[in-house]
Design brief:
Layout (H helix, E strand, L loop, with lengths): L13 E4 L3 E4 L7 E6 L6 H20 L1 E7 L3 H10 L6 E3 L4 H6 L2 E6 L2 E6 L2 E5 L5 E5 L7 H10 L2
Parallel strand pairs: 3-4, 4-5
Antiparallel strand pairs: 1-2, 3-8, 6-7, 8-9
Helix pairs in contact: 1-4
Length: 155
């Protein structure tokens, strides 16, 4: 799988999401959106990132940007996470890692010398034309929402 680059067509997806929703690239056709991949629901970094995005939703909405969070978690922990922090944007389950693999975010990680496969905290800003407008790898949860707002304004 080649590395996705700015200007490339965003890979297609369809996934179950929080609130009984389904998110798909087909439904987002003609709209700008942010896909942000996070490792695990209700962990400190992921909570900080999700709450930052939630706070930025009014600003992102004014720009006309849809936001979808994606993790390898199953739906029950995702629903619990969304409810616990009143996250209104869709949080999608990529339990088989197909979408993460297509976006190159399902990567080998290492902790305490052990290697394992896991989700890289990354985001992709996709323009209304379906092409990737910006990519953030190894995102810092605290600064992420502000970076997205700045980049989305340029769309």
């Amino acid at each position: 799988m080649s590395e996705l680059a700015v200007g490339a067509k965003a890979p297609a997806f369809t996934m179950p999401a929080s609130g009984g929703r389904t998110v798909s690239s087909k439904e987002l056709k003609g709209k700008a959106y942010l896909l942000y991949f996070y490792p695990k629901a209700d962990t400190p970094g992921c909570t900080k990132q999700a709450c930052g995005i939630q706070e930025a939703l009014p600003a992102l909405g004014k720009i006309g940007l849809e936001v979808i969070g994606i993790s390898p978690d199953a739906m029950p922990p995702i629903e619990k996470f969304a409810a616990k922090y009143n996250l209104t944007f869709p949080l999608a389950s990529d339990a088989d890692q197909k979408v993460a693999t297509a976006y190159g975010t399902w990567v080998e990680k290492s902790m305490y010398g052990k290697k394992y496969m896991g989700m890289e905290r990354s985001s992709f800003l996709v323009g209304a034309d379906g092409k990737i407008a910006a990519i953030w790898r190894k995102v810092k949860p605290e600064a992420h929402a502000a970076q997205v707002i700045e980049a989305a304004k340029a769309l």
